[in-house]
Amino acid sequence: MPTFTSQVFQNPYLPRGADEVHAIVSVQASAAEAGKAAPAGELAFGLLLDVSGSMGDDGAERLRCAKTAVVEALELLREDCHFFVVLGRERAETLVLPQRATAANRAAAIQAVRALQHGGGTRMSTWLRLAQQHFEALRESRGALICQALLLTDGKNDGQDDLEAALRHCAGVFECHARGVGVDWQVAELRLIGQRLLGTVDIVPEPALLAADFRAILGQALERAVADVRLRLWTPQGASVLYCRQVAPEILDLAPASGTTGQIRDYPTGSWAGRETRDYHFALRVKPGQLGQRMLAGKVGLVLSEAPDAPRQAEAQVLAIWTDDEERTAVIDRTVAHYTGQGELAQAIQEGLAARQAGDAEAATRKLGRAVQLAAAHGHDATTRLLRRVVDIVDEREGTVKLRREIDEADAMALDTRSTRTRRLA
Amino acid sequence: MPHCPQQHWSDTDDFCSVCGLALEAPVAAAAASAPLPTPTPPATAAGECPVCHAPRGAADSAYCEECGCHFELAAQGLASAALVPVEPPASAAREPAAVPASEPVATLRWDVEARALGDDAPAELRAVARVFPLDLPDQLVGRHSARRGIQPEIALDDDDGISHRHARLRVHADGVELIDLGSANGTLRNGTPVPAQIPLALHDGDRLQLGRWTELLLRQR
Questions:
Q1: Per-residue DSSP letters for A50-66?
Q2: Chain-centre distance of CA A277, in angstroms?
Q3: What is chain B's alpha carbon radius of gyration, rounded to the nearest angstrom?
Q4: What is the CA radius of gyration of chain A?
Q5: Given an 8 Å threshold on Cβ–Cβ distance, is B15 in contact with A293?
Q6: A332 touching B, CB under 8 A?
Q7: Domains of chain A
Q8: B26-62, pLDDT tens digit by residue?
């Protein structure tokens, strides 16, 4: 089990009458014993593979590469892991039932994957619901497991698909990484899956790149050391939470677990590796205090179970101190400002690309220009590189850009999906 | 039992577990109500501020009018670390003070153009550029404060991320130099933060970013 530590970044000084408190809480997991990595937890891994008709287009290259990628991922599994494979069409079908990843079981699964055929539609909600049933059955028989899934699609949902309802059922049961191959899928759909099921989202523009991507996902899943970590937030009576947002390594809005309201709220953050750091932005509204008063606006700790008396680790205090000393209240905390800027950058990119899709060139130029300016100001070179493929930059500091006439759709989608990745302050 | 100002029953002893207000232990409360020790009388006004080297103002003031530091504490090295420069190069720090104010200024003439950049800036300000000539040997960049009697020559009142006494721009025969007066949010020169209280030579075309969205462009006329 890793140990957790936390650090708070904020300017606690508020002017008279102010009621909004902003703080970045940085949480770090590290090995309990120095120099020794925390042992990995027991992993259950589900592969949700799109085998709809479109996967067979263009000489079935996508399906062939996807099969290779799945086979390579299965070969990485340790013997103590559990796994299953679900095939996705307009209905979901289990290709490999949940089982231990013994050499014999993996060989049989690989053979089944090699033999599968494409054909049919796309309805991701059914794939997710079937995976949920498999994970729940595994948990019933095996107890606490780290449940991770990988969903691969190349298209968008057919017609009416109640993805929202399916995600409500799956949240808290497993985490899901979503990948789109090619350019015919919808960023919004996969982003919704990633946001609700606490996983990553990315584009794989070329089918040949799938294998490397799957290996990377499985590699980080195998490193997970502890399941179901929750942020437990205490706020004073009468306070409200404006938002709680993970801001690094990716922007992810967190929703409180159902049934936790009032002074104590739990925010599930999924499973953690033995060594990693995540940053959270808390925006709280409190009753304004008298000048000179000091108040605890929030207390954040980590718990490993939903029990109300679960021991809290790495507790951090968010303070509010009212003063009329302008030199103190005017200070903008560097870390809060950094992540506020990164949030604005992601929003500018998403809105700019949406405007471009809608044919509003003026708005797209303005928003993407602002994105270029913000990316430069924050030293976000990876994003600047992606932006260069969509706009011609005239003046980076002024944010003057020209929309490119011919854009590779894969570049626009890569910019969109990766807009939520943030940089940490050095 | 710790005492909550709102009379709540708290089960924690640093902040009230109901309303979050800081709790005062009875002993601390008694100490707080005791008369404050009389402050040591300030030193006479002779000389200059040990932190920013500005001439001392009124004889009865304990604080520097320029950077706000407390003379006695600063002299003892107890002033907040942010206000005290880490080893300013002695020659650089004292050179401006050595320039007498009566010296004829400027064979070169300078001005700064203030602009509002970015989405945070009010739209009506983004369209305009304000030009401030650097006609004096020394001008304050900041915001007006009637209460504190601050009247900056380069007044940027719209941007509340700028400190009232933010920085000085000093003009010499051979150029302009910037001294950030320990402003709350700092100053960037061409994107790089400048150290507080240390004079920094500027060049034609340098851009200074300060506050939420203000940029000053230095130009030779």
A1: E-SGGGGHHHHHHHHHH
A2: 14
A3: 22
A4: 23
A5: no
A6: yes
A7: 3-35+227-329 (2.60.40.3670), 43-222 (3.40.50.410), 334-420 (1.20.120.1690)
A8: 443 334 444 444 444 344 334 666 655 565 655 556 6
